[in-house]
Design a protein that fits this description.
4 helices; 0% strand
């Protein structure tokens, strides 16, 4: 059996739905899901299951856009929040 031939045994739709729900909850709790140092469930499962990576990435993009509308203060660039972080 191919190492990626687990789709018969794994509920990929269920995993995607759970990851989406968990990431939405983080958004509602006020976490900055666009922070590059913060790994959401959608990102983690996208890396673990390539079959749902595109769905996860699209959902995360939509949630980040929603976050930008709900909390514009979180939509600033990371360099704006940490001005000395990019000095080399």
């Amino acid at each position: 059996m191919d190492k990626h031939d687990y789709s018969k045994f794994v509920d990929l739709d269920g995993i995607f739905n759970l990851a989406l729900k968990e990431t939405q909850e983080l958004l509602e709790l006020g976490y900055d899901i666009s922070d590059p140092s913060f790994v959401t469930s959608l990102e983690w499962y996208a890396g673990k299951y390539p079959e749902i990576a595109e769905r996860c990435n699209n959902a995360l993009t939509e949630l980040i856009e929603k976050q930008a509308l709900i909390s514009p203060e979180l939509a600033t660039n990371v360099y704006d929040r940490y001005p000395d972080s990019h000095n080399f």
